[in-house]
Amino acid sequence: MSKTKLIINSNGSIKIEGDFEIMDSKGNVYGLEGRTVLGVCRCGLSSSKPFCDGSHRNKFEHEAAAFDLPPLKTK
Questions:
Q1: What is the pTM of this model?
Q2: Which of 22, 36, 59, 71 is least enclosed, having the fewest CB within 10 Å?
Q3: Checking DSSP bridges between strand 5-8 and strand 37-40, what pairing results, if any?
Q4: Which residues partner with 16 through β-bridges?
């Protein structure tokens, strides 16, 4: 099985591709109806949060560019 991918789109959503499930904070699973690709809102403007509905267009700016996190702290 291939890895699930999260793609941070510039000026937009987080695109999720692969085999995944999404749960709320209580552990309830969202019914994704077989989807293997979808967008998660990161601008806060979507009327269907946590999913993207395109409301960010011309209202959200962030140029996505990958970088390395600092080393994981150990005790």
A1: 0.85
A2: 71
A3: unpaired
A4: 6, 38
| Cα of 35 vs its chain's centroid, Å | 14
pLDDT in tens, 20-64: 999 999 999 999 999 999 999 999 999 999 999 999 999 999 999
- 43, 60 in Cβ contact below 8 A? yes
Q: How does DSSP classify residue 44?
A: S
CA dist 75 and 70 (Å) reads 15
| Residues sharing a CB contact under 8 Å with residue 20, sequence separation 6 or more, in sequence order | 4
Tokens 């209202």, located at residue: 59
